[in-house]
Amino acid sequence: MSQLRPFSKLPALNTATVLLVENEEQFQQSLAEALVEETSVTVNVRLSKSLPLPTDSDDSRPRIDLVVFIINLTSELSFQSAEASLKYLDPGYFLGKVCFMVTNGRNASVPMERLDAVRKLAATLHCPLLFAEDKTPDGVASAAERLWTILKVAAGLVPITTALYLSNLSRCTLPPDIDQPSFN
Amino acid sequence: MAEVTAAAGQLSEAARAELLDLCEDQFAQLEKLQNEIILCESNFCENPQEQSVNRRIATEAELKLWQTVEPTLLAANSEILLQAGKEEMLKLCSELEMVVSCSEAKRDKLRETIELEQKWLAEKRQVLEAAAVHTERLQAEKENSSAHNVLPDTKAKIQKMKAYQDRLMEALGDILEKYAPFPQNSSINKNTEIDEDLISLREILEVLMNKILNTPHDPYVTIDNTFWPPYIELLLRHGIAVRHHENNFKIRLENFF
Fold first, then answer.
1. What is the CATH number of the domain that holds A83?
2. CB contact (8 A) between residue B2 and residue A90
3. Predicted TM-score (pTM) of this structure
4. The complex's ipTM?
């Protein structure tokens, strides 16, 4: 099992690299385009359907500062794929270099249990959970902006802040009574 | 380090060289640390409990580091410091400007909200006042009225209502007599045969009204040959009566409110 490690490579100068993992490959393209518009530093965006990443591109791949799992709430497969991909990540990533992004959260056909499952997953891994609107340009831009804020910290571009520190503040937490049927 | 190199563009040769030296030192240190990290076998495991423990350990380590760290000067050269400070200040300024505009927008929004809320409050106050006046009046009425005068009052009211109803009925009868006379051979085409059992519009209405009042659960009246079809048409067209949903031969009086 080849795991992705956070510190296996030297960082490049003035560069932040983010890996977007999405099973459907719908949202990652537009999100990537919005992310690379950032001009103050070089933003590398790597796209993937799932983990593990192919080993033959190992050498050409830069150090990945942040792994983002994009989960489409209308599809069960999307969640399962993200869950299966998690074990190919070095646990070192979970100290602030992983975040979950949920799309289609406003769709009425989404079962509540799936959102709860995603929240539980994010909470057990102590990762932030972001909600994004992928249908409108504004939604994509604001999703990219929020991601960029996390990425800057994860790539070490913000002085006096570390990824662990940020993730301790922004991690997803569960209300204690989420399992009770009356929880709404 | 990244910012320092970015700022180096506008510096003198000597300061630039010094800065590059600093960067190289830093990078050498980074490489050293990187090698150490790679040499370290990671002993993490996937159990979520252990991961929480890992997280705690890492956070504690970070905390200790922050507590022990001493603030150091970025560089000894004053030119570099000036340049870096200037950039930091400019950045800070633009950020603060953003904060100002954001808080101004928020303040305006809050002002609007407070106006709305005050309007709402005034409305609610009026409602409260009206309700208080109403309760006062009811209270006064309750005190004034006793069992003795409630009964005559009600009786008088009933009497008044009855008189009113009689008057309405009479008026209705007059109008019907005047404008909807009893169907007679003379009044219509001579060729059509008129059933002898026909009843007048007034009687039709009477039947309908009695039916709806006596049996409200089943207000429908079956149309038979005593009902003159044009009258039924008239009632239906003007929305005075409606047909049964399933049975075409049944009609009832429309609900009037």
1. 3.40.50.300
2. no
3. 0.60
4. 0.72
